[in-house]
Amino acid sequence: MSTLTSTARPLRYRIMSPLRDFLNDSRSTGVLLIGCTLLSLFIANSTGSSWYSNWWTSEIHPAAGLHLPSSPIEWINNFLMAFFFLLAGMEIKRELTNGELSSFKKAILPFGAAFGGMLVPALIYTAFNLHTQQAHGWGIPTATDIAFSLGIASLLGKRFPVGLKILLMALAIIDDLGAILVIALFYGAQVHGWWLAAAGLLYGALFVCNFMKLKFGAFQILLGLGLWYAMLQSGVEASITGVLFAFAMPVSHLAQIEKYIHKPVNFFILPLFALANTAILIPANIIQSLNTTVSLGVILGLVIGKPIGIFLVSRLMVACNIAHLPANTKWNQLFGMGTLAGIGFTMSIFTTMLAFNQESFRNIAKISILLSVVTSVVVSIVYFRIISGKFQKLPIPSVQPAKGQGEPQPDLGLTAA
């Protein structure tokens, strides 16, 4: 018995330890999204696979009169993605209260950079689609995917300075907030006032719970579900309920909520979102499809517009002495960071589903987003590998010891993760 046990333990350890390491790795979500996207594209374009794309949009018959989502993809995008927005909202609130966005000095550069990184791509898309029926898709190239961009930044290692990684994280969080506001203001359906008023009352009840310092539990969850349903019926995009819920929670509750939803969001909801929303039949004339105003607006907006917008606004703010570059960061590194910000997978696809009703335009935009992701990743990796060789190592300052204290110790400061 003891021999069997001693043999089983190392085997279980060999299986579970790599899995645990993968789940705790910041890059794992990006790897899963890539894998699910490739799998979905493969199945959707295999012979006799029309069932796959059709299943995601097949009709579900909900309880009569409740007006709930009517297909698997609608349940994913309208309900499950609310938990993704909840996670994003908690991160935004945490950074605004006691993180990298908690003071004007810390927040001004990422806020300005994020603004430039949303404005220029939107203008590029609009320039290509101004007088077309697809002009409404200007919000598609304005988003940055936190999981993808930070995952690639981690792969770059010491070529990507710590200060630049913090700036990218703060910028991506603000970008998410901007994308959420764009969705709420410009991509909702016709607003129904009574339902919106009901949502307001339920939202107020959440704040009352906080004022009374009630312990987080089933009552707040029921209020959150009621808020989601009222938002769904009001015509405002229901999934942003997650952000509203996060902002209504006290900071002390965020860690508890995140503990329960972090892994389900990253390892179930986001992969499911990728599978459902990339079930795209790639057209035989893909070159012609990519030569459309929608495709050009999305690709050029993300790949070119993002880094240019981030760089120009940052340069202007530093020149006006409003903001300062992160420590040990150079301008060409900041421009390279902008190429990572051009990875707009999750939020870009989500906005695509709201912007276009025609499946053909949705597919063109999605293919363009995927091509932009590949292009931005390749450009970022090549760019940082090239420019990293041009930097000399920063001199390590030394501290002179006081009399009798022995040899001086170097002040290493921060090192890249």
Describe the structure.
With 417 residues, the chain is mainly alpha-helical. It has 16 helices and no strands. The model is unreliable at 1-7 and 391-417 (pLDDT under 50). It has helices at residues 2-24, 28-44, 50-56, 72-98, 104-129, 146-155, 162-186, 193-211, 218-234, 241-248, 251-277, 286-289, 293-319, 331-341, 345-355, 359-388. Helices cover 69% and strands 0% of the residues.
What's the topology here?
Blueprint: H1 2-24, H2 28-44, H3 50-56, H4 72-98, H5 104-129, H6 146-155, H7 162-186, H8 193-211, H9 218-234, H10 241-248, H11 251-277, H12 286-289, H13 293-319, H14 331-341, H15 345-355, H16 359-388
Offer a few descriptive terms.
16 helices; 69% helix; 417 residues; mainly alpha; disordered C terminus; disordered N terminus
Summarize the structure.
The chain has 16 helices and no strands.
CA-based shape: globular
How many beta strands in the DSSP annotation?
A: 0
Structural class: mainly alpha
Major sheet: none
Question: What is the averaged pLDDT score?
Answer: 83
The count of helical stretches stands at: 16
Order of helices and strands: HHHHHHHHHHHHHHHH
Instruction: Tell me roughly what share of residues is in helical segments.
Output: 55-70%
Estimate what percentage of residues fall within beta strands.
under 5%
Report how far apart the termini are.
44 Å
Radius of gyration: 23 Å
Poorly predicted runs: 1-7, 391-417
